Q: What sequence folds into this?
């Protein structure tokens, strides 16, 4: 007989986990976008050497699973700094740097989708390269890849479950804990699926709205 | 206004401009024509430094385009350009397309930029499209907006790179009409085009290029009235595009 009362009984524990997952996603998206944009600017303005450095950065973070990145930041950064930085900080740093690699690749595809003539038109009107990128090229590139940004953000939200390796309680970890404790795996994981589904639905609706205002 | 002195350009081993020497004087309308691949579009892009060249000199107002005495952005403020594919900014409304460079390059106030934009929209007959987005306009309308956008920066010369070759036939005239009125106002213009009717009516000089070389450079009257004294290559080209 299914018994969903454990959800209600542990609502605040689950909610804290969900809050951690959402916060981490938000920080990962904003931080990742910032790092990804910075990497893209390096590509745009520093020629061959800058491009090689960014290539290497992207390659490294794509080669290593996120789980290991989180793990290594937790253990390596204290060795370099000489003091522990805590699970939360190392998770944030790991997510930001990891997502930055992916966002820079997405943005690169977005930039490729903007016609070369657009840059010429902007330059021909007397804009500097930086102005052309800021006012003409980047807005179009971002608009073109908003759906891919969303997909990446949803993957990121699901990946927050990996912070269990540094003993943080994200939503899925919290669910697992109560599921095992109460022996109610089916109910707990069914509920988790529903929550993931609803959040994905909400995010998609939000981005559709964003796309309409952004991508003219 | 624009002087080309033995300009040479290479794409790798490919010699795209060969010793191009010609002049566009203030107030003149010079039409540059020639078969595709003749280097005419490349030549016009050299004038505002969108394309580099390897030999010779291009002087705009007496200052070398390649010299460090004037930055590329400074040069480009004085030289307006209209492209084959319009290149309006798709994410901006028509009025914002015309205002953008006024704001960020000339640092005009929003009010002043908009007022200028309105006057130019009126001039190209598209005042009612100010709030529209480029994707909702016809090719002819987009090109007229692109001309307004270039004029908003008060250029001393206008470069047109095949302004009508991406247009459906019924839209060509509305663009040529705007260009004709611009010429009548005394604008200095360098126009790469195959529109020989426009050349005949509006141009002061016609330059014919083939394989990177200037083959003919003469007054419009001379070019069209005495075809038999033109070079074989020019005659062949004219026969091809005027035969129907």
A:
């Amino acid at each position: 007989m299914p018994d969903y009362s454990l959800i209600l009984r542990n609502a605040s524990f689950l909610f804290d986990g969900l809050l951690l997952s959402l916060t981490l996603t938000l920080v990962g998206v904003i931080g990742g976008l910032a790092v990804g944009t910075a990497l893209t600017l390096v590509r745009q303005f520093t020629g061959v050497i800058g491009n090689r450095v960014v290539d290497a950065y992207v390659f490294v973070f794509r080669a290593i699973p996120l789980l290991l990145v989180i793990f290594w930041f937790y253990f390596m950064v204290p060795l370099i700094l000489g003091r522990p930085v805590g699970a939360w900080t190392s998770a944030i740093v790991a997510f930001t740097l990891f997502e930055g690699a992916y966002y820079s690749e997405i943005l690169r595809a977005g930039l490729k989708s903007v016609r070369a003539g657009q840059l010429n038109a902007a330059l021909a009107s007397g804009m500097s390269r930086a102005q052309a990128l800021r006012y003409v090229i980047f807005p179009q590139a971002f608009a073109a890849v908003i759906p891919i940004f969303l997909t990446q953000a949803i993957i990121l939200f699901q990946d927050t479950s990996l912070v269990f390796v540094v003993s943080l309680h994200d939503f899925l970890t919290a669910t697992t804990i109560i599921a095992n404790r109460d022996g109610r795996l089916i109910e707990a994981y069914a509920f988790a699926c529903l929550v993931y589904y609803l959040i994905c639905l909400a995010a998609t609706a939000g981005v559709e709205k964003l796309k309409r205002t952004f991508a003219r | 206004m624009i002087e080309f002195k033995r300009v040479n350009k290479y794409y790798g081993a490919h010699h795209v401009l060969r010793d191009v020497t010609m002049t566009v004087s203030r107030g003149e309308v010079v039409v540059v024509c020639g078969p595709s691949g003749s280097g005419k579009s490349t030549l016009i892009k050299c004038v505002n430094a969108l394309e580099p060249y390897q030999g010779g000199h291009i002087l705009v107002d007496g200052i070398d385009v390649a010299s460090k005495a004037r930055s590329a952005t400074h040069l480009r403020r004085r030289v307006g350009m209209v492209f084959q594919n319009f290149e309006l900014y798709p994410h901006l409304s028509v009025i914002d397309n015309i205002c953008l460079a006024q704001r960020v390059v000339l640092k005009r106030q929003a009010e002043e930029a908009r007022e200028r934009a309105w006057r130019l929209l009126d001039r190209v007959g598209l005042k009612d499209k100010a709030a529209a987005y480029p994707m909702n306009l016809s090719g002819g309308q987009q090109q007229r907006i692109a001309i307004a956008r270039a004029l908003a920066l008060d250029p001393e010369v206008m470069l047109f790179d095949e302004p009508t070759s991406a247009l459906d036939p019924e839209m060509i005239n509305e663009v040529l009409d705007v260009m004709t009125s611009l010429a009548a106002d005394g604008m200095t213009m360098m126009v790469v085009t195959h529109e020989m009717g426009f050349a005949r009516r509006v141009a002061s000089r016609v330059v014919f290029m083939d394989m990177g070389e200037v083959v003919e450079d003469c007054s419009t009257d001379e070019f069209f009235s005495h075809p038999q004294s033109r070079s074989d290559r020019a005659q062949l080209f004219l026969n091809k595009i005027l035969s129907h």
